[in-house]
Amino acid sequence: MTVLQALVGYYDRLLESGPALHYGYSSQGVSYAVVLSPEGEALDVMDVRDTTGKSPRPSRILVPGPVNRSVNIAPNFLWDKTAYSLGLIRDEETGEPTPAHRGEHHAFKQLHLNLLAATDDKGLRALASFLSTWHPDPQHFSRLPHARDMLDANVVFRLDGERGYIHERIVGRQIWQDHLATQGGAEALCLVTGELAPAKRLHPKIKGVRGAQSSGASLISFNLDAFESFGRKQGDNAPVSERAAFAYTTALNTMLTPNDGNNMRIGDTTIVYWAEASLGDAAASAAESIFSILADPPPTNSAEGAKVRDKLAAVSEGRPIEEVQPDVREDTRFFVLGLAPNASRLSVRFWYENRIGEIYSRIAEHWKDLRLQPPAWAGAPALWTLLIETAPPGKRRADNIPPMMGGALIRAILTGGRYPHSLLAAIIARMRADKDINGRRVAICKAILARDHRLGYEKEDVSMSLNPDDTNAAYRLGRLFAVYENLQRAALPGVNATIKDRYFGAASATPASVFPLLERNSANHLASLRKGDKAGLAHWFDQQIDSILSGFDTAFPRSLRLQEQGRFAIGYHHQRAYKRMADKSSQTDDNT
Predict the structure, then answer these.
(1) 3-state secondary structure string, 178-240?
(2) 342-366 confidence digits (pLDDT tens)
(3) Which residue among 164, 263, 300, 373 is buried most deeply as judged by most CB within 10 Å?
């Protein structure tokens, strides 16, 4: 199934369940409603903004769909910002109302007088009368309530004594639908539905994609001659019917609404996901719910996190999906779409379709690959937390994550393929730069190498915790480096900068140039311990070093490839974790 076909299917599902937008309508942010008398006089202005948050914000109201405009003058039907609906804008210098001089209000007035000329609906006639007599005079406008605040905001209209808006009237809806039927291009075979219907020339904009233009961006557009063929213009190059274009854009805009629950962001990629309703809307909703939990688990210390903690634990143990979420049908078809900004357009980073049961297994497999002892995360990690580890300290934001990495990561997780090695390179570069070899970064290195081994790209596996029998040279060198660092701390208590701060990057990339120096320094540190009262500790370090070095058949390697640098970091982390666990055990024994 293509992207657009799946999106049209989702729109049809929304339409059946109730909250979907009727053809030709769109949910837009509206701030004020002008109350009209039956004769067309402006009696009042109502503030309809949403005041549930810290500050008022436009309410989402279902209105006739917005027109496509950039620098062109094109009015909306029965609503618009004040430049069109009332003919006034805010002066950039004084902040006072001033007439809009590009003809916006005239275009708005002519559209409505033409479309409403034959109607006898009292609400629509009141609006037509208002537009016939209204003059965009700043002094007249300033007498209206909320005049200054209303400037440049979206405005709708309401008939005095009625609760609904004028654009909600059945007659107005029919006029709008009839108008849309005259706006389509020549009939063509729709590539989405397979039906013969008028083709959409300019597709509606998509809003809510991180980094894209706030006014919206196009998923499908032909705005240069180089994109056109055989003399066709705009949407005729890839015919999509008016209804199909409305359906797929409405479906996307609905899912991209903040806090909708069907979107997430990983790096520069905005992801939307949905299920097919062929098995019933309840099964589809349950599939979307479990995917949301798996891909972006809530914080474990929150009330919501406490509710799903047991589910996540069951997933990590490999339990069947029916046990974790009994109302999920394993064979429900599921779709995941990754979008990223590309100038005034949107680019598709990835498109994935599979059964929710298969996706569930892939994410469980991903968590298994990340497993480390001691655990790197308090609970199951959200997908975006992996990419945050590639950002510099104090700048852990999406705009500091390498572009395209989010799409490559989610694609690898969903398909079970190789993790992007650009992620491994970024993690290793970050560890070398800020000397923070934490469990999360090491877990990412371990996951990449473990999956490569399982897929046959790496000969040797990598363990979750310290493996003294692992003979891999890079892994042993990482362990040895950790022992040398611990020895330095024991011999020089309170040292400000350890060998990790000075030599970790060079030691993990070119061991032969660094380890001979570290070996000489370790001999001095051992001698220092023996002179004091720590001869037993010196003996213990000596045994650790001999045990690790006994696995080397040759001299220190001159260089280590990227994957081996990852094993070096894993060995270093394992050895340090082992030392911390040994210290805790020793303290427990002493207390006992």
Answers:
(1) HHHHCCCCCEEECCCCCCEEEECCCCCCECCCCCCCCCCEECCCCCCHHHCCCCCCHHHHCCC
(2) 878 899 999 999 999 999 899 989 9
(3) 263
